[in-house]
Amino acid sequence: MTIGQALLSFSVVAALLTVIPGLDTALVLRAAVSRGRGHAVAAALFFLSLAGLADA
Asked: What pTM was computed for the model?
């Protein structure tokens, strides 16, 4: 495998991982579709609070 092929492979995998939403995004979208905007906002705030706890 040449450097060019390795760089191309890495770029493809990095782009896919960037585009694919994470679990928290999927749960917020599910809350928005199934229960409405209020539940989606609550779910998003919950995940933001978890992110704050992880930094502490």
From this structure: 0.59
